[in-house]
Write a structure and sequence with these properties.
By secondary structure, the chain is α+β, with helices and mostly antiparallel strands. The protein is built from nine helices and six strands. Helix 3 packs antiparallel against helix 8. About 30% of the residues are buried.
Length: about 260
């Protein structure tokens, strides 16, 4: 096992095992690379195995608990997925779609609360200028649009943080609490959108919680990693938070 796994062409830290009389994987060896020895050798359990019909949402949540999973095929284990697979295109597209869905619902919620476009006052002067300039440019090009369509996700989140009734719908009383709660969503968008590091933060942006919020889309577009081994639990937490916020907006209570 050691000679095969520690070969420079592989350098594996975990190796699937099967008995000599078996055609399918029935165990796993976890290696201590530094000591060059088998640290753990054990049979597979249900917690190690992933059904091929598992959703990407469940995959993200399960990889936050353990760093690798074996995927069952027709005749047994067919492949291994690890934390590094969270950087692959299917996961990027899923997260980008989740963020886009959330942003669309959030825009609708803001418009319902501010039918007279009073939400613009919650933006910074620079933000208001940006929205008005983009709105004028789109209208000049004969594009059917509204001012809320000319805002970034960061700006929409700022409106929520600055509006007492909106932030209370997500369970926050103060602007500071709301900014802290919304920051991971902003960070994820920025990691996907602007290819920033997975845990670095930048200067405050329109949301008031740091420019890392805008990150999610660019990772999809530029194929840069947005998750590393040290933070799959963070990614799982943001993904859960997005589902909670989407549910909050979609619930009858949130539409009152």
């Amino acid at each position: 096992i050691l000679r095969w796994a520690l070969d420079p062409a592989r350098s594996y830290s975990r190796v699937p095992l099967r008995a000599s009389t078996s055609i399918s994987v029935d165990g796993v060896a976890e290696l201590d690379i530094v000591a060059r020895r088998v640290a753990v050798r054990r049979p597979l359990t249900d917690a190690d195995v992933l059904d091929p019909t598992t959703t990407l949402s469940e995959l993200i949540q399960r990889l936050a608990i353990r760093p690798y999973l074996f995927v069952n095929g027709l005749t047994g284990v067919s492949q291994i997925v690890t934390v590094s697979d969270l950087n692959r295109l299917p996961v990027r597209i899923y997260l980008f779609a989740l963020l886009a869905h959330f942003e669309g619902l959030l825009a609708g919620l803001i418009v319902e609360h501010y039918p007279d476009e009073g939400w613009i006052a919650a933006l910074t002067e620079k933000g208001r200028t940006h929205v008005e300039d983009l709105f004028a440019l789109k209208r000049k090009d004969d594009i059917d649009t509204t001012r809320i369509d000319c805002t970034t996700l960061s700006q929409k989140l700022r409106v929520v943080a600055q509006t007492a009734e909106l932030r209370r719908r997500f369970g926050q009383e103060t602007k500071k609490e709301s900014a802290r709660y919304l920051k991971p969503v902003n960070d994820l968008r920025n990691r996907l959108a602007h290819v920033k590091g997975p845990i670095e933060t930048g200067e405050p942006d329109e949301s008031g919680v740091g420019d890392d919020l805008d990150a999610a889309r660019d990772g999809v577009m530029h194929a840069a990693p947005f998750s590393k081994r040290r933070n799959p639990a963070w990614l799982a937490g943001v993904e859960r938070q997005l589902h909670v916020m989407i549910g909050t907006i979609a619930s009858p209570e949130a539409r009152r």
